[in-house]
Amino acid sequence: MAIRYYASMEHPSGFVGFRVVIAYSDNYHQKYFSTIQAQSQSDSDVYYRYQHLRAQKQELEWQLESLRYQYHRFVTQNHPSTKPERGLGVHGLTASFYLDRRKKWQAALTVSLDRSEGSKRKPSKRFTFRTRPFSGVWELAVNFWAIEHGIKDQDRDRVLNSPPEPDQLKRLRRHMNDHGNVDIPVEALSPVFAEQRERMAFARSLQKAEKAELIKGLVKRPDDQLVADMTAWFEIGQETTV
Asked: Which of 60, 67, 79, 209 is deepest in the core (most CB within 10 A)?
């Protein structure tokens, strides 16, 4: 992106004035602002300054257009260099596995840090599933990513509402084992699927409650959590009477 001034005899076509050029992705724009009518090819001439200002205005407009394009790509696409099964649909947020200090493999969501503040910063921040459910890790990672990269609220919320499936970490483990010269044990996936297992157990408890008719005849159905608790209490009671 640049503004170039062509004096007399500098342009092959004989053009005199300012040329503005911008190129990004598959987009290429250029525009000419002639100063041939100016009495003097310098800032002392009003028309020369006017054309120069028009050229600068055009450059700023195209710069903003380029920034909007880059931002849209940042929040809607994986980075072009993202490796298979790591992408989560945006730049700077990926799925990963890494060896922790105990030399144990951990699944994580990784946020690339903005390095504009200085090269001493670490390149990324990891959010693991060791102590938090999958949905909680996703929320933490996305909120951090949004703050770190200045993401608009509506884009942050859209990403928050589009979490990946835990199965993506399963596919990533398989890919890394097959192509990365590593041996990530299946146990590393256990924390990733903990929340999913709890939901399945919860659903089974509700089904058992319906089958056992624990809530039959109640004027008002209890909430699902209470029904699940009733089922667990009922099963414990049956075990102690056997």
From this structure: 209
